[in-house]
Amino acid sequence: xxSLLLSLILEVSNENTKGGLFDFNATxxxxxxxxxxxxxxxxxxxxxxxxxxLDEREEYIKNSLxxxxxxxxxxxxxxxxxxxxxxxxxxxxxxxIKVSQQDAQKLVSEKIKEAQQEAEExxxxxxxQLNFQKEQALKSLExxxxxxxxxxxxxxxxYENIVNF
Length: 165
Fold this sequence. Notes:
The chain crosses the membrane at residues 30-47. This protein has helices spanning 2-14, 27-164. The chain is mostly helical and 165 residues long.
């Protein structure tokens, strides 16, 4: 069909045509037929495959964007979830640290109280021992004073007896 059109065009162009710029002979309908034939031929051979490729590419891009947005949403959700878990973990860790510090403070306070009680007990025992030793010393001194006063009395009485004699 194509070769027939070309041969027709060649025959028409070879004829000597008279006229000017706008001759309305068989060339005008032939040119319009040729234009329509080329349009149909280009549409079938060139435009349809290209439009199919472009449509497939557009569909692929849409699918890729959809998948990417879904993945981005999932990533955002996971990020928020992990940030919440991290915040909760930090809060739990702070609570554990706080409880541990309170427990350590209680333990230190108890140990300090125990040490103070032991020190007070030691002081009391030492004070009691000193009081006991003081009483023993006073009793011993009283006994010695009594003995010495008896001896002085005896000597005075002996001296008086010697003098009175």
